[in-house]
Structures are given as structure tokens and as C-alpha cells.
Amino acid sequence: MGARVSTGSAAPDIRTASVRVPAQARAADVERERGVASDESRSAPGARGEHTHSEPPLPHPRVETARPVETTRPVVQRASVRGQILDALRTALVAGELAPGQVYSAPVLGERFGVSATPVREAMQQLALEGAVEVVPNRGFRVVRRGTRELAELAEIRALLEVPVVLRLARTVPAARWAELRPLAEAAARAASAGCRATYAECDRAFHHAVLALAGNDQLVQIADDLHRRAQWPLVGGPVPRGRADLMADAAEHLALLDALTAQDLPAVQSLVREHFADS
User: Fold this and answer.
1) Mean pLDDT, the chain, as a whole number?
2) What does each C-alpha distance from 256 to 188, 214, 225, 248, 269 come to in angstroms?
3) What's the pTM value of the predicted model, to 2 decimals?
4) Poorest-pLDDT segment among 34-38, 54-58, 134-138
5) H/E run at residue 136
6) Which residues contact 246 (CB under 8 A, 6 or more apart)?
7) 73 closest CA partner among 133, 22, 119, 118
8) Are the CB atoms for 181 and 231 separated by under 8 Å?
9) C-alpha dihedral over 262, 268, 272, 278, to 10 degrees?
């Protein structure tokens, strides 16, 4: 599933992983960035020196357009638009719609999202901080090329962080708390059954996030979430992206892990967690 334009007004559904960007976003940007937006209002390709004549085509982003907001309602904040664009770009990365090695410009991406280049550029800068893209002066942002070795290193680091924590939680967390996480595991199973990598990636992160959150260590959760996100980016010259069967097997491990945690079966927990990272 990628980030393609949808004009429906229904609320986002986890099965579609769509991102809602208000239709009036461009106007809000201009209103709130008078100094900057005067240039952005002319955000034709090439704005701020970003050349777009050789940019590869990108599928239209999956962005739901909301109905116009009544004048009595508050104007949507630009930060909200930037956050939604960031989510859509992350989805496009996982889905492979932003290809490794290719350069994408903020003005062109902005046109596809129906917003000015500014929130797109800010979202891309955040992805640059996360290591997903790199800045190419006067052109835009290049999606970073990654290989299988980096993926293996990320899996090793995640295992070193998460396995001891999950084993400790298995000894201390009551069964009722693990039961609260079952809807997350079941949502991941549904996404896997549908064969959508982008939706499954979001469900997978949500499940791992919820498990680690029980440790009460916010820094651990933040670091683990960043590592998890990096592990989901596409590879160059690596294996074929995991298909529906692989996703379903991965999701089944979540449910089996919850069963073992509920029963406080420590040997089973340790085996399942280590196997889960080995297969990542």
C-alpha cells in the first residue's frame, strides 16, 4: 500500500493506512508563513533551486482530502500537516514507492500531496535526521541505499535491547495486561493476511511498542522504535520484499508470544523472541 490520493471523507482505517491531509492545507501554509510562503505559493518545480526535470515518476500519494472546514472552526496547524505528510512519506518508503538511490524534490512531492513544498521539505528533513534520506544540494532528497548487512546489524541490536526486557516482563507482568495487547496482535494478523507491507509495518511497530512500554522506560521505547522503523526501509540488491505468507508467519509469532507471556512460560518466551528477531 502506498501513499495514493483518495478523495473520500471517511475516517482513516487501519486496513487502508491512508493519511488525512485537509484540502485547505496550502492556504493555511500561506497564511502562517507569510515570509516563506510567498515563495512557496509559486511552488512550481525548481523552487529553492530544486531541479525536477529528471525526477522519476512517483505514484500519487494516498492522502484523503477532508471536506472544507467551516469558518467557525479553527484553522489546521501547519505542524499537523507536516506530521501527516511525514506519515505518508514513511508509508511510501516501506511500500517501496520511494526508491533507494532516487532523488525527490519537495515541490514535486508537494504538488502530489496537494500542499506547498514547505511541509514536505520539513518532513523530508526529519527523514534525513532519521537516516532514511540524504540532502542533495539544489536537487532535493535522495533515498538512502541500504544492504542486507545493515539489516542484520539492526536485528542484532534490537535483539540485544528487547530480548532481556521481554524476559524480565514475562516474570512480572500479570496475564491481564498481556490480554490487553491481543487486539494489536490481531490487527497485525489482519494486515498480514491482506498482504499489505505498509499497513503491517505500522501494526508490527505498534505491537512491539506496546510490549516495551510495559517496562516503563520511555528512552528504551524511543530507541527501539527508531531501530524498528529503520529495519523496515527497503533494501538495494537484497532479498525480494516479504510476501503475504512471510507477513502471516511473522504475525503468528506475535500471537504465540502473547500466549507464552500469559502463561509465564519463560523458555517459550525466550525461544519465540529470539526466533522473531532472527527472521526479521
Assistant:
1) 76
2) 13, 18, 21, 12, 9
3) 0.66
4) 34-38
5) strand 133-136
6) none
7) 22
8) no
9) 150
